[in-house]
Write a structure and sequence with these properties.
The chain is mainly beta. It has one domain: Immunoglobulin-like (Sandwich), CATH 2.60.40. The chain is 11% helix and 38% strand. It has one helix spanning 2-21, and strands spanning 39-45, 56-57, 67-68, 72-83, 91-99, 106-112, 120-121, 125-126, 130-131, 137-143, 146-147, 156-164, 179-186. The strands form three sheets. Strands 1, 4, 6, 7, 9, 11 and 12 form a seven-stranded antiparallel beta sheet that branches. It has a four-stranded antiparallel beta sheet with strand order 8-10-5-13, with no helix packed on it. The protein starts with a helix and ends with a strand.
């Protein structure tokens, strides 16, 4: 009988011991701080060759108009990264001629193509074909929190085109240079 009592007591102790030892729970807390600053970056690719060149060729026959050697250039891409502040919904990219002027009688146009590449987030939408001048013109709108990826074949391909708008305004002026300024601007 004593032996059964010891066995029952041991079995009871083995059943109760886990209930006494294991339900001891405790909580701890830590504070996690995350900071993401506002970001607005843009880049024109390819890096070493951000030049476009248009040449007007005179006609070899009298009475015929001069012609542009190449009327389009599709070699440049625009890349950007955007992290908006909390109360802002979008950004735009504008383009303008910041130094120099387009020769008289000539019109220069820029059209950003639809986004392509390996970026993420909310990329912008092309604004269509715009004539470039010394006033900022939107070329990409609706940019949210996102990035295009880096390099050519990422972002928006830039298509430049030129047309002769007024033959009476064209004069032989040699080579003319001007600089285009792109700005990633808050809306």
């Amino acid at each position: 009988m004593k032996r059964h009592l010891v066995t029952y007591s041991l079995n009871l102790l083995l059943l109760i011991l886990p209930l006494i030892a294991f339900p001891q729970w405790d909580n701890g807390q830590i504070s996690v701080y995350f900071s993401l600053p506002e970001v607005a970056l843009l880049d024109i690719e390819p890096d070493g060759s951000n030049r476009i060149h248009f040449t007007m060729i005179p006609s070899a026959e009298s009475g015929r108009p001069a012609e542009m050697e190449e009327v389009t250039d599709e070699t440049l891409w625009i890349n950007y990264t955007s992290a908006l502040p909390e109360n802002q919904t979008s950004r735009s990219i504008t383009a303008e001629i910041s130094q120099g002027i387009v020769p008289s009688g000539i019109r220069l146009y820029l059209e950003a193509q639809r986004y392509s590449g390996n970026g993420r987030g909310k990329t912008g939408q092309p604004a269509g074909k715009v004539e470039l001048s010394n006033q900022p013109r939107p070329v990409i709108t609706g940019i949210g929190n996102g990035l295009t990826g880096d390099g050519i074949m990422n972002g928006h391909q830039l298509v430049f085109s030129v047309e002769i708008s007024d033959y009476s305004g064209i004069s032989s002026a040699g080579e003319m240079n001007f600089i285009l300024l792109y700005t990633l601007t808050d809306n």
